[in-house]
Amino acid sequence: MNLDEIIKAASSRQVLPDNLGVIDSTLYLSLRSLYDSYRAGRIEKDQAKAEKDKMIRAYCLEKDRHDFLLKLVLHYREISNAVSVLACDFRLREKAGADPSELVPIAAKILNVFQGLERWKEEYDAKDAITNPAP
After folding, report:
1. In this predicted structure, what is the pLDDT of residue 121?
2. Do 31 and 54 fall within a single domain?
3. pTM assigned to the model
4. Which of the two ends of the chain, N or C, has the fewest CB atoms closer than 10 A to its terminal CB?
5. Rounded to whole angstroms, how far apart are CA atoms 89 and 106?
């Protein structure tokens, strides 16, 4: 449900939909309670409008935070996967007795990926690096 659908459902006292997340459910239940209070005469129209506006601003802020955190987690996973493959390649080459001059570029790449200076490149063949380490 989008914001307008949540507002409409809450104002018409529809049953709480099963598929709503925590943020959407919280807004829905808060708005439904607010509408009930207004209809019952416990709060004035100006107060109801002000509270509704506050609820919607808080909802939008939380949705933005949630979206940001989701992107952050996905980005972390991408970095973690890249570094895991590179670190495995580094260890295999090190165990195989690779010259330190061969290991430095891999270590630098790991640091660059962690620092965001280098994006993980799809063309890096992880399977080849793991199964066929350089001697």
Report:
1. 54
2. yes
3. 0.64
4. C
5. 8
